[in-house]
From TrEMBL:
<keyword id="KW-1003">Cell membrane</keyword>
<dbReference type="InterPro" id="IPR027417">
    <property type="entry name" value="P-loop_NTPase"/>
</dbReference>
<protein>
    <recommendedName>
        <fullName>TraD/TraG TraM recognition site domain-containing protein</fullName>
    </recommendedName>
</protein>
<keyword id="KW-1133">Transmembrane helix</keyword>
<dbReference type="InterPro" id="IPR032689">
    <property type="entry name" value="TraG-D_C"/>
</dbReference>
<keyword id="KW-0472">Membrane</keyword>
<feature type="compositionally biased region" description="Low complexity">
    <location>
        <begin position="505"/>
        <end position="520"/>
    </location>
</feature>
<feature type="transmembrane region" description="Helical">
    <location>
        <begin position="15"/>
        <end position="35"/>
    </location>
</feature>
<feature type="transmembrane region" description="Helical">
    <location>
        <begin position="75"/>
        <end position="97"/>
    </location>
</feature>
<feature type="domain" description="TraD/TraG TraM recognition site">
    <location>
        <begin position="419"/>
        <end position="537"/>
    </location>
</feature>
<dbReference type="InterPro" id="IPR051539">
    <property type="entry name" value="T4SS-coupling_protein"/>
</dbReference>
<keyword id="KW-0812">Transmembrane</keyword>
<feature type="region of interest" description="Disordered">
    <location>
        <begin position="501"/>
        <end position="523"/>
    </location>
</feature>
<dbReference type="Pfam" id="PF12696">
    <property type="entry name" value="TraG-D_C"/>
</dbReference>
Length: 596
């Protein structure tokens, strides 16, 4: 069979050619160095300079500089050029090793995006976009990188920063200890130019302690901690009924209690819907009568109390009052079941320590979302996993802030400047906003930048259902996928989104007439599912709307300038949390300063 491609009996010629090129790569620069160094030596020793003769300078230096001494020529035309060439080679190798170490020693994956493929996320384009989005930067001569967008990392193998703009909305799916906090949440909070909202289920050694001191230098720090994760003194209270004076607002508040208590698959059954409806009607009555939210628990305990009915009628909500009356006067078994369901949803309000955060407190300032969104303040919303009603209050507060930001953006011409960053870490556990997927469709255009961080895709499906999570995924203009993806279906989905590339396959055969080589092309996945599952820590995939998937090198905060100071502040804050926890659970240890 004749060979399908050229190259028969050429191995020997290829080897000779490579050797020749290698010799030339050494001899040519060495001969020129010998000529230059020999002339410098001749000049320094008082002899005449030679004309351009690099070959003779290397092979016969005495012929080129006949007046110079043997020792000076040995040093100047032989030893110095060789040492210089060796030093140059060592320097090049050292720089290459340093470059490889900075990029994690990882090879660029063929087929992944290059800088030109994600140009809208690179420095020049993202800076130009920031000028058009933020009127305050329009005439600025120099714009800091932090004012242009949220840093996602470096394009793998390079030092070129990749940022999402201040009109993007993002979802990050990253397993525990894959860098979601150290490389995404904390750097984003530290660099945010405007107000920052963070939800979290941890305090010590997390984003709370790492950023609190730094953010207190640019604005006021607010902390809502109803379950005492940070064990700090209560320095704020927030009125969840402030936005519940309309039926829609009261319904949204009740929806947060529903979402915090049952999964998306159970929210449509009769008891869940009926319990949520009763809560919304009672929330509306309490808000209209300017009562604290805890009064709702009294009404739930005594369904026959006509107080909420009278309030609703007095404020023109006769239809709502009629609905509430129908439930109260309905069959006792049904009424008791509905009220018991509502009581379970709002049970956290029976806890006086939790209720204190959402009822008026003397000498404690009130947190007002409308004022927060025009500041450079920071709001930390902390709740434990499975916090039930407590996590409902966290979700309600986050939702209230985002709605206040939307209203302010509309008053300001359509967009917040500076933008507001909302880091919804552990969103599936502590911030279950039911219609968050729908909010993603417009938040970015308002200058409200949400980054929802999940541990897995299925975690989002559990909270928002398959359709809701798919909607959020589709609406996100930036998706960040970190290491630890163990869901085979999701890994395959990502692999298909990344796509295929052509791979050259070379085959060699031997026959009596010699060796023949053939080359063919085939397509294979750029990143198969098993490679996505095995993504090393410190790397992430970035999917941006209308662009090829890119591989990023993450940039954890502790490797950035100023990390030592932040580490010290974080350690100090974590130690204070531990001290407060010990003092709280060991009253006899009164020597602890709980205000540290």
């Amino acid at each position: 069979m004749p060979p399908s491609s050229s190259s028969t009996n050429t191995d020997g010629y290829d080897l000779v050619l490579r050797i020749l090129l290698g010799v030339l790569a050494v001899v040519v620069p060495l001969s020129h160095l010998a000529w230059a160094s020999g002339n410098i030596t001749a000049y320094l020793t008082g002899h005449s300079l030679a004309s351009y003769q690099p070959t003779n300078a290397l092979l016969h230096p005495k012929q080129v500089w006949p007046e110079a001494g043997e020792n000076s020529l040995l040093i100047g035309a032989r030893i110095v050029p060789v040492l210089f060439l060796l030093a140059l080679g060592v320097t090049v190798v050292a720089l290459w090793i340093r470059y490889k170490n900075r990029s994690g020693g990882r090879k660029r994956i063929t087929g992944m995006a290059k800088a030109r493929d994600i140009k809208p996320l690179m420095a020049k384009a993202i800076t130009d976009k920031a000028r058009s989005l933020r009127p305050s930067l329009k005439d600025a001569k120099h714009i800091k990188a932090r004012d242009t967008g949220v840093l996602l990392g470096n394009l793998q193998g390079t030092r070129r920063e990749v940022r999402m703009g201040f009109e993007d909305v993002a979802v990050a799916i990253m397993a525990p200890r894959s860098g979601k906090t150290t490389s995404l949440a904390i750097p984003s909070i530290l660099a945010a130019p405007g107000p920052v909202l963070l939800t979290s289920n941890k305090a010590a050694g997390d984003a709370y302690t790492a950023t609190r001191d730094a953010r207190s230098a640019v604005g006021r720090v607010w902390s809502m901690d109803p379950q005492q994760i940070a064990h700090a003194a209560r320095e704020m209270w927030w009125n969840p009924l402030a936005d519940a004076k309309t039926l829609d607002g009261a319904g949204r508040l009740a929806g947060h209690f529903l979402a915090a208590s049952v999964d998306a698959s159970q929210q449509g059954d009769f008891w869940s819907k009926a319990g949520s409806n009763i809560l919304s009607q009672l929330f509306l009555a309490a808000a209209l009568d300017e009562r604290p939210i805890t009064d709702v628990m009294q009404w739930l305990a005594f369904p026959a109390d006509r107080g909420p009915l009278d309030v609703l009628r007095d404020h023109g909500f006769a239809a709502v009052a009629a609905q509430l009356k129908g439930t109260v006067e309905g069959p006792p078994e049904t009424r008791d079941g509905i009220y018991e369901t509502a009581r379970q949803y709002a049970a956290a309000l029976l806890n006086s320590e939790i209720a204190a955060w959402v009822t008026p407190q003397k000498d404690v300032p009130e947190f007002r979302p409308s004022e927060f969104v025009t500041s450079t303040d920071t709001l930390y919303l902390l709740s434990k996993d499975g916090g039930g009603g407590a996590s409902a209050l966290i979700a309600a507060c986050a939702d209230s802030v985002m709605r206040a930001a939307t209203a302010q953006a509309e008053r300001a011409g359509g967009r917040l400047d500076p933008p507001m960053l909302a880091i919804l870490d552990e969103a599936a556990n502590v911030c279950k906003i039911s219609d968050l997927p729908d909010l993603y469709s417009h938040l970015g255009s308002r200058g409200i930048i949400p980054i929802t961080i999940l541990q897995s895709y299925r975690q989002g499906q559990k909270v928002w259902g398959d359709a809701g999570m798919d909607a959020m995924w589709s609406a996100s203009t930036v998706k960040v996928i970190g290491s630890g993806i163990d869901d085979p279906d999701f890994a395959d989905k990502l692999s298909r989104l990344i796509g295929d590339h052509d791979v050259e396959t070379t085959s060699t055969s031997r026959s009596e007439s010699g060796k023949s080589t053939s080359v063919s092309m085939r397509q294979e996945r750029i990143l198969p599912p098993d490679a996505i599952r095995a993504l090393p820590k410190g790397t992430a995939l970035c999917f941006a709307t209308g662009m090829r998937a890119a591989m990023l090198d993450l940039r954890p905060w502790y490797l950035e300038p100023g990390a030592d100071e932040l580490s010290t502040a974080s350690a100090r804050a974590s130690k204070a949390i531990t001290a407060r926890a010990v003092a709280k659970h060991s009253p006899q240890q009164s020597d602890y300063d709980t205000a540290t």
